[in-house]
Automatic annotation (TrEMBL):
Gene3D superfamilies: Nucleoside diphosphate kinase-like domain (3.30.70.141). Residues 1-138 form the Nucleoside diphosphate kinase-like domain. Belongs to the NDK family. This is Nucleoside diphosphate kinase. Pfam families: NDK (PF00334). PROSITE patterns: NDPK (PS00469), NDPK_LIKE (PS51374). One of its GO terms (biological process) is GTP biosynthetic process. Its cofactor is Mg(2+). ATP binds at K9, F57, R85, T91, R102, N112. Keywords: ATP-binding, Kinase, Nucleotide-binding, Transferase. One of its GO terms (molecular function) is ATP binding.
Amino acid sequence: MEQTFIMIKPDGVQRGLVGEIIGRFEKKGFSLKGLKLITVERLFAERHYADLSAKPFFNGLVEYIISGPVVAMVWEGKNVVTTGRKIIGATNPADSAPGTIRGDYAIDIGRNVIHGSDSVESARKEIALWFPEGPVSWSSSLHPWIYE
Ligand code: UDP
Ligand code: MG
């Protein structure tokens, strides 16, 4: 089954949005396969966002991600990468639809509350980076009530 990496950024943690955000993924029917609250170091944040290292906002983005603890998660389910991005909403909260996490809880692009992998391949890399111990292996007894 497909997995994605979701991270609640420092602003989401500081603003008390952890429960609300986890609830949205849980209520959708996805399964939580990894969860930790951690503060990451600069080099680690730079590795996570390595693809964006040439962008003008890169340094500010790294400062933002290391500014406080983040909640790192692995979520699993059919199409969870694409659907996770839809639940999160557009990168710039000015364009995120109401009903999405960024649409409901954010205003500025540099304080957009949450990260989600943009492809199955990025998810694989990000899960390996953030969860070198591997996700937790368990199967939900709700499975037949969510999948036909
Ligand atoms: N970002 C920013 N300014 C920009 C574009 C992106 O501060 O002009 C930040 C924003 O927090 C975004 C992150 O960099 O979530 C990663 O950018 P990406 O294009 O990967 O967006 P995402 O995948 O998070 O929607
Ligand atoms: Mg991205």
